[in-house]
Design a protein that fits this description.
The protein has 98 residues and is of the alpha+beta class. It contains three helices and six strands, in the order ββαβαβββα. The C terminus is likely disordered.
């Protein structure tokens, strides 16, 4: 059994609860947790592919769900490019002292 809980991040009040069997994917209950007036949506990696649903149910909400970085020791390509770009810019700005 799993309990999925929608909580207001400012007041810490629970506004929605969905209970499912343990074999139900977390992303299947996302639409039942959103009320529509949210401004931010937080969640773990299980909710990462729900951007369209968040925009449809809560148009003013920003998606702050965790993104998957590694999967079986492979890094997601978009994240790898972002990491490499960050490293390259840091190397480009480094100076040598003689």
């Amino acid at each position: 059994m799993k309990a999925h809980v929608g909580v207001d991040s400012q007041s810490k009040v629970i506004h929605s609860v969905v209970v499912t069997p343990a074999n139900t994917a977390d992303c299947k209950v996302m639409d039942q947790l959103l009320l529509g007036h949210e401004t931010r949506v937080y969640g773990d990696q299980a909710y990462k592919s729900q951007g369209e649903l968040i925009r449809a149910r809560a148009p003013k909400a920003k998606d702050f769900t965790n993104r998957q970085c590694k999967w079986k020791h492979f890094i997601d390509e978009a994240i790898r490019r972002r990491i490499e770009r960050s490293r390259a810019s840091a190397r480009g700005w480094s100076t040598r002292s003689e």
